[in-house]
Amino acid sequence: MILVTGANRQLASLTLLELHAQGIATIGGTRKPGSSECLIDFDDPVSLDFTRIDTLVLTSAGYAEDDRVIARHAAVVSAAMRDGVTHIIYTSLVGAGDHLGFALAHRATEHLIRESDLEWTFLRNGLYAELFGGLMSWKDGALETPFGDGRIAAVARGDLAAAAATVASDPHAHAGRTYELTSPSIDATQVAEHLGVPLQLISLGEYRSRLLSDPGLLPLQPPMLASIATSIRHDFLSESQPDLTILLRSPLTDTVTVAASAAKSLRP
User: Fold this and answer.
1) Of 107, 216, 231, 234, whose CB is crowded by the most CB atoms within 10 A?
2) What pLDDT score was predicted for residue 35?
3) What is the 3-state secondary structure (H, E, C) of 63-121?
4) Judging by beta carbons within 10 Å of its beta carbon (0-12, 13-18, 19+), is residue 154 exposed, middle or buried?
5) Per DSSP, what are the bridge partners of residue 152?
6) Helices (H) and strands (E) in the chain, counts
7) Rounded distance, CA 238 to CA 252, Å?
8) Which burial class, exposed, middle or buried, applies to 60 when counting CB atoms under 10 A from its CB (0-12, 13-18, 19+)?
9) Can you say whether the dihedral through the CA atoms of 250, 258, 178, 116 is positive or negative?
10) Of the candidates 81, 233, 79, the residue with the CA atom closest to the CA atom of residue 145
């Protein structure tokens, strides 16, 4: 049996759909389970029951400070070892993102898993194309971005879910492997051209100022988002690797279209 954590989040839910389509016995774990899911709450040790689970797909418990994220992941790894899980698949962060504001928790989790007695596979996911488009904004009909002419090897979330399902369907064939999952790089100009609108560049200082004044963001989010912006602007996330194409054995989703759709959905 395969269990996928974070079942109510987009990457996990898409992974579950991929596995169910293949007829593979899979269950989703989440804090608020429906009739076809089980209770898995990283903050409640009693809920971390992985008996009868052979393969655990651990999707990152982000949106918290590093100490809390790492503690959550450590609790999951400990429970997995206790309950006899054979293989753990962790959805990590692409290696080129080591300098990003949320990289430390990913690398610490990889270390925890390597030090365990579990068989493992790391899926180092590139940043979502949906996120790339979603971090742009609109002003007077123009698309605004702090990304300059920098490029990013962004990935469609659906392709990452398909890769996770591919590995989970035959985990032992991928034991001890670390995959760098990226797509061919794109830039903001391509997104604006796809939408047929002008592109307006803003400075990193202006972008940070807007983040800091946004009451809807958690305190940890402005520095994280600013680190993404400067990384893209200065081409630190532009390198593409072949691992995703090799795993899927099919053409990748057009990430310009995906990013443009995300940006368009925000247009006033």
Assistant:
1) 231
2) 80
3) CCCHHHHHHHHHHHHHHHHHCCCCEEEEEEECHHHCCCCCHHHHHHHHHHHHHCCCEEE
4) buried
5) 186, 237
6) 10, 12
7) 16
8) buried
9) negative
10) 233
DSSP string, 187-249: EHHHHHHHHT--EEE--HHHHHHHHHT-TTS-TTHHHHHHHHHHHHHTTSB----SHHHHHH-
86-123 burial, b at 16+ Cβ within 10 Å, e below that, comes to ebbbbbbbbbbbeebbbbebbebbbebbeebebbbbbb
221 touches 211 (CB < 8 A): yes
What predicted TM-score, i.e. pTM, was given to this entire model? 0.95
The residues, ordered by sequence, that sit 6+ positions from 23 with a Cβ below 8 Å of its Cβ are none
What's the one-letter identity of residue 230?
Answer: T
Q: How far apart are CA 88 and CA 91, in angstroms?
A: 10
Inter-residue contact 263 to 134 (CB < 8 Å): yes
Return the closest-CA partner of residue 141 out of 194, 196, 197, 192.
Answer: 197
In the structure encoding, which two tokens stand for residue 247, read together? 């795993």
Per-residue tens of pLDDT for the chain, all 268 residues = 999 999 889 999 999 999 999 999 899 999 888 888 999 999 998 999 999 999 999 998 777 899 999 999 999 999 999 999 999 999 999 999 999 999 999 999 999 999 999 999 999 999 999 999 999 999 999 999 999 999 999 999 999 999 999 999 999 999 999 999 999 999 999 999 999 999 999 999 999 999 999 999 999 999 999 999 999 999 999 999 999 999 998 899 999 999 999 999 999 9
Which residue bears the tokens 């593409």? 240
Q: Give me the pLDDT at residue 139, please.
A: 94
